[in-house]
Amino acid sequence: MSAGPKIVLDRVTKRFGERAILNGVDLSIEAGESLAIIGQSGSGKSVTLKCILGLIQPDAGSILVDGESVIGLRGKDQERVRAKFGMLFQGSALFDSLPVWRNVTFGLTQGRSRDTAHMKKVAEENLERVGLDGKILNLRPNELSGGMQKRVALARAIAPRPEIIFFDEPTTGLDPIRADVINDLIVSLVEDLGVTALTITHDMASARKIAHRVAMLYDGRIIWEGPQDRLYDSGNPYVDQFVQGRADGPIR
Ligand SMILES: Nc1ncnc2c1ncn2[C@@H]1O[C@H](COP(=O)(O)OP(=O)(O)OP(=O)(O)O)[C@@H](O)[C@H]1O
Ligand SMILES: [Mg+2]
């Protein structure tokens, strides 16, 4: 285990065709830290996350995880690095054709023997962690409410006990109470299990609750970062406009 930061992005750039989406993203996340990224729709938050996950290749710059470059990894090296990651995708991304228990254990069953009773038990334990009842084990995701689907996706993300978890808008579409259940879960993953967390969110209450530090992505760069308690006192007109949700200001 290296002593440096858990994740470091250095001048990461990414364009799609003529459009530069990331224009030199610099970001560093310590082990056990919870960082939230905020920014407008389409500003490249999910793209940033996918670059770290290795799902999108950046055009330039470097991305280190535990001091190791993760760009362009293949085969066993890629598997080894991906085993550190858990991911809650924007919009849950569950398999509707599979029962809940298979969704939750999906990342555990590949290449291993399938002891159904054991896998159901593992699924149940992880569902309980996210506040869901084992009674839903055999249901299909499309038989659940959106909030329950989100929690099933969260149970899937934590099942392999990853070192780093990425949450892409974990509270979007949930009622305020369910959203806070997810917030508490993220806090407990970080505090009790020592997980490093990177969360994308449009929910400022959630950002303040779950993150130690917040970074704002704008115009392809991180234009501000600071402790969560400075979010409403950043001294940055872009951050002010964004967190206050004002139509007028430097952001057009
Ligand atoms: N694979 C791709 N090919 C082409 N363009 C893409 C691809 N992925 C993302 N984009 C574009 O990059 C831009 C940033 O997308 P991204 O999904 O990162 O936005 P975001 O900040 O996560 O927004 P939101 O808050 O709405 O989820 C968008 O304009 C999107 O259309
Ligand atoms: Mg997104």
TrEMBL record:
Highest taxon listed in the record's lineage: Bacteria
Matching InterPro entries: AAA+_ATPase (IPR003593), ABC_transporter-like_ATP-bd (IPR003439), ABC_transporter-like_CS (IPR017871), P-loop_NTPase (IPR027417)
ABC transporter domain: residues covered: 7-244
Keywords: ATP-binding, Nucleotide-binding, Transport
A Pfam cross-reference name: ABC_tran
SUPFAM superfamilies per record: P-loop containing nucleoside triphosphate hydrolases (SSF52540)
Residue ranges the record marks as coiled coil: none
GO molecular function: ATP binding; ATP hydrolysis activity
Signal peptide as annotated in the record: none
Protein name, per record: Phospholipid/cholesterol/gamma-HCH transport system ATP-binding protein
Source species: Sphingomonas prati
